[in-house]
Design goal:
The protein is of the alpha+beta class. The protein has helices at residues 22-34, 74-87, 130-139, 151-156; strands at residues 5-17, 39-44, 48-50, 61-72, 103-109, 114-116, 119-121, 144-145, 149-150, 164-165. The chain has a single domain (5-165), classed as Alpha-Beta Plaits, CATH 3.30.70.560. Helix content is 26%, strand content 32%. The strands form three sheets. Strands 1, 2, 3, 4, 5 and 10 form a six-stranded antiparallel β-sheet that branches. The protein has a two-stranded antiparallel ribbon with strand order 6-7. Strands 8-9 form a two-stranded antiparallel sheet. The model has no long low-confidence stretch (mean pLDDT 89).
């Protein structure tokens, strides 16, 4: 993989898992992301327990949000995250919103709005996802999300929907 060197950008990543020891999956994914060349961890939220978004006949999720500084282009970042997902046993053949060992999403990449066939940033569903907004607010309460508004305003309009912070 060639790595395109870019100016340092702050990006936010959503992490989720509901298979194969979700707590361990997220801890391992965090370490793998932080160890990636061109990435430096800025902050990591608490872990949160959430109900599945899609089919309800699957285990509950564990979620978190990670802030990073990166020199990677957004597509190189996406590729690096997919390599980490695959190393954690991620299988993309299943149904949408199905169970998974690891799901890594680019929630935000600097102040850019990106609309490509393989990637939309900011992530399109963030405004309705308590399992994203609550942990994200924990590490970046003053954040303004391009095209979406203030994180505090999005959070005020989003119910907990069964979300519980893990201690």
């Amino acid at each position: 993989m060639t790595i395109s060197k870019s100016p340092v950008v702050t990006a936010y990543l959503g992490l989720g898992s509901n298979l194969a020891s979700p707590l361990e999956q997220l801890k391992s994914a965090r370490a793998a992301i932080a160890a990636t060349v061109g990435i430096k961890e800025r902050a990591f939220s608490s872990l949160y327990h959430s109900l599945p978004m899609g089919p309800q006949d699957q285990p509950d999720y564990v979620n978190a949000v990670m802030a990073i500084d990166t020199e990677l282009s957004v597509l190189d970042l996406l590729q690096s995250l997919q390599v980490i997902e695959n190393a954690h046993g991620r299988c993309r053949a299943g149904e949408r919103w199905g169970a998974r060992t690891l799901d890594l999403d680019i929630l935000m990449y600097g102040d850019q709005q990106i609309d490509l066939p393989m990637l939309t940033v900011p992530h399109p569903g963030i405004a309705e996802r308590s399992f994203v907004l609550y942990p994200w607010h924990e590490i970046a309460p003053e954040l303004s999300i391009p095209g979406k508004g203030q994180l505090t305003d999005l959070l005020a309009n989003c119910s907990l929907a069964g979300l519980k912070r893990l201690d």
